[in-house]
Amino acid sequence: MGKSGLRGIPRLTQAFACSIQGLRSAWRNEEAFRLEVVAALLLTPLALWLGATGVEKTLLLGSLVLVLIVELLNSAVEAVVDRVGLEHNELSGRAKDIGSAAVLLSLLLVPVVWFLVLLG
Question: How do residues 37-47 score in pLDDT, each as one tens digit?
Fold first, then answer.
């Protein structure tokens, strides 16, 4: 049982509300997230049009959603690191750099998936 003591549907409802709050916070505070959302929104119709099968459409869209997921996780790591302290710390810098590297890899995956699905 979680801290709230809620179970079942009330717990899921509360978790959903927290998730929406997290998305709003990322939209307000993270420029990279906003740019990636706009890119995903622009590419989604293209993915649905270009994907010949359900699997192809899923791969094209999934690569876009993965970028958003990784960006949210990176932003969460950065928020926790900044909460601990803003002074320079080697481990804090390493955590932020590793999160940034994860975002980079997810971004690089998009053209690879799109190339392989559409031209492979």
Answer: 999 999 999 99
